[in-house]
Amino acid sequence: MKDKLWKEVSGAKDRLEGVAHVTPVFTSSSLDHIAKSCVYFKAENLQLSGSFKFRGAYNTLSALSGEERKRGVITHSSGNHGQALALAAKMLDERAFVIMPADAPAVKREAVAAYGAMVIPCAPTQSSRVGKTREMIEQTSAVFIDSHDDLKVIAGQATATVELIEESGPFDIILAPIGGGGLIAGTAIAAAHLLDGVRVIGCEPAGADDAFRSLAAGERITDFVPQTIADGLRTPLGKLNFEIMQQLVDAIILVSEEEILQAMRFVWERMKLIIEPSSAVAVAPLLTGAIGGNGERIGVIISGGNVDLDSFFSTLAKTSVSPLQS
Amino acid sequence: MKDKLWKEVSGAKDRLEGVAHVTPVFTSSSLDHIAKSCVYFKAENLQLSGSFKFRGAYNTLSALSGEERKRGVITHSSGNHGQALALAAKMLDERAFVIMPADAPAVKREAVAAYGAMVIPCAPTQSSRVGKTREMIEQTSAVFIDSHDDLKVIAGQATATVELIEESGPFDIILAPIGGGGLIAGTAIAAAHLLDGVRVIGCEPAGADDAFRSLAAGERITDFVPQTIADGLRTPLGKLNFEIMQQLVDAIILVSEEEILQAMRFVWERMKLIIEPSSAVAVAPLLTGAIGGNGERIGVIISGGNVDLDSFFSTLAKTSVSPLQS
Fold this sequence. Notes:
Two copies of one chain form a homodimer.
Chain A: H1 2-16, E1 25-26, H2 29-35, E2 38-43, H3 53-62, H4 66-71, E3 73-76, H5 80-91, E4 96-101, H6 106-114, E5 118-122, H7 126-140, E6 143-144, H8 151-168, E7 173-177, H9 182-194, E8 199-205, H10 210-217, H11 239-248, E9 251-255, H12 257-271, H13 277-280, H14 284-288, E10 297-302, H15 310-319
Helix pairs in contact in A: 1-3, 1-8, 1-9, 3-5, 3-8, 5-6, 8-9, 9-11
């Protein structure tokens, strides 16, 4: 099975060549000092559409048949997958429909629309999203693209880890956040193929620990109410994702909401990079001491940088002018 | 005079080699689209100490005589120069004293102290800063290091532009913000030596337009009350800085507070880079249309990324957990 998975990753790498950004890898001497390790951040917050999701979306869309391309693509998303799909569809000249909950931030709806996709509002419940999507598929005959439970999507996400290993490997440990499981599954496939003895560790908010509990139980737990600021990690694990994780992921670390915020602030303040809360989940274990301490070489996938900055900038605008001398 | 200035820059380049970060250069296709130009951002927000100021401080400190080094160094600063001096002194194993206004953000005082410098509080007025500094020089016999009105400081700052030109040049236009004038003077020296026909344009808040008015009047105006969020640009122009600017700076563009905030938000949101308001001043003219429009190659010095994030993260912490499904 591992060979078949790697073949998909090779295919994704070819399709993304010259299209996706080869995002930079950052280091931080203060983080290395705290974590007593050598840490390498793969900055997918600088990827097209602001997250790694572009890789999976573009890989999937560009592998569609000519007939499928004509029908266009459809998904439901309140976040990064919607933006990624919209951009990939635009670049490939395909129609795209994105079902979005009516309470999604205006900035996200606008981003999807700005890429030329049709935004279709629905009520903010899973059943409404699924129902509305089914209805639109009947109307448009567009091809449904899942955000994570899809081998082409997983293979696309894997290419971030391939690049990280090519540029800065080898690694003793690779960390990635877990939402639906697209990123962690891809990360694990790439790491297993390219590195010997690496440990792939998924990071999850304690308030959305379905992957942790699913692996412990040996079966996928999908019925839970996520309680976390990490909006990209509230999705239940996919079926294929769970199967891959059972084979290739070594451990899962849970982090608290406070640890997520502290890690996000650390990266903003010290590394001057905007990362979203979901990304901070994979940084937090380095700051708490859960990971590191022995000079390990550690790779971290920084998944994205799409954050709603409205409140910050409206506060700044109010307090803007100050007469104080520097 | 230009040759003598360039010789200083060459010396600075040698002293900073292998010490200062060669910061990356970023581009943004959405910015290029808006500005109808090819824009290259030299990301000094990723420099040691979080701003370009490290270059000037380290260059100056490493050029001191053995006797001067023993005496240690002193400055007054509420911002980036204090942090830069403290870090440079630590790296060179020199004592450092930083006079800081008592109302400076705690995070900045802590940063200076964390680099091992002695922080000496003073009242938040220019006269108190100068008085306290004089008093401490008498007590300690430390060498005073000006934040901008110093040829070694200016030569250090110039090295950012040298690197930008080496990596991404040539340019039709180079933009940099103006505070005390250390960065713009260094930028202009480097550009004049390395490029033909380049225009060096300084960017200033309309609420702290002393450089604009000084160049128009042909004499340095230092008595004004700055009204701007760009805390790094509230300093009056230095004497040497003004002389260099009169010879080598082609124009000055003024931007409003609203334009500063919009530019800062653009870079945070689209480029995922934390830049401080002072840096946004040199980005704003590209968004307003004051600069660009004809496919010009434009270099921009992003001066720093030291921003007080307290309010943002305390708001986030309060609203952190949300039960919404992604």
